[in-house]
Amino acid sequence: AMQPSAKTRPLTSRLPKSQNGEAGAMTRVVLTTTSPEQTAALGFDLASRLQPDDVVLLNGDLGTGKTTLVQSIGRALGVVGQMQSPTFTIMAEYPARIGDVPIVLAHLDLYRLESGIDLVAAGIEDLTDRANVVTMIEWPDRLAQLPDAPLWIISLEHQGGDSRRFTILEPDRG
Fold first, then answer.
1. Is the distance from CB of 86 to CB of 92 less than 8 angstroms?
2. Burial class of residue 171 in the structure, from the number of CB atoms within 10 Å of its CB (0-12 exposed, 13-18 middle, 19+ buried)
3. pLDDT tens for residues 103-135?
């Protein structure tokens, strides 16, 4: 069997810390998945590195796999049942857990909102003020400002067929 190249192998190891150690510095990783199953495996890997109070921004066109990624993160964190994108309700909350800590996994889809909405109006400030909430936001470009929280910024791009390129900026926790 051929060895998968590093580019397409699902990410299973801890990402290296950024070397500069500045506050707010982020670790950047770019990788490609070639199937929905690999995207789901990536979601499981990301879930293992999330901490309560993290905010995950998901940038990408329709059909790039944002919901697949969110669903796999949810499954990894113990969400029961199917997570649908809350396109019409804007927000959905699910009981979940990180290790032994019960958390709320909040999933927002801002696609139908106008650009320039503030965090209070979008309901995000409420979430980031609460303890033990992980917030995942699709279409974060609608927001007028970014939440004040440990931020993951994940960009998804079509690469033809089932291939997707992920650019992942991970918060540097110092």
1. yes
2. buried
3. 999 999 998 888 898 888 888 888 889 899 999
pLDDT at 45 over 70: yes
CB atoms under 10 Å from CB of 138, counted, come to: 22
Residue in 155, 144, 149 with CA at minimum distance from that of residue 64 = 155
3-state secondary structure at position 153: strand
Task: Please choose, from the candidates 55, 71, 62, the residue with its C-alpha nearest in 3D space to the C-alpha of residue 156.
Answer: 62
Token digits of residue 127: 């979430």
CA distances, 170 to each of 24, 27, 49, 94, 159 (Å): 10, 5, 9, 23, 22
Query: Residue 58 CB: number of other CB atoms within 10 A?
Result: 23
Residue 96 pairs in a beta bridge with: 103
Please tell me the pTM assigned to this model: 0.82
* SS3 assignment, position 44: helix
| Rounded Cα–Cα distance for residues 158 and 34 (Å) | 10
Per DSSP, helices labelled H in the chain are 36-47, 66-76, 124-129
Q: How many beta carbons lie within 10 A of that of residue 68, not counting itself? A: 19
Q: How far apart are CA 93 and CA 134, in angstroms?
A: 10
Rounded Cα distance between 76 and 69, Å, is: 11
Q: Rg of the Cα trace of the chain?
A: 16
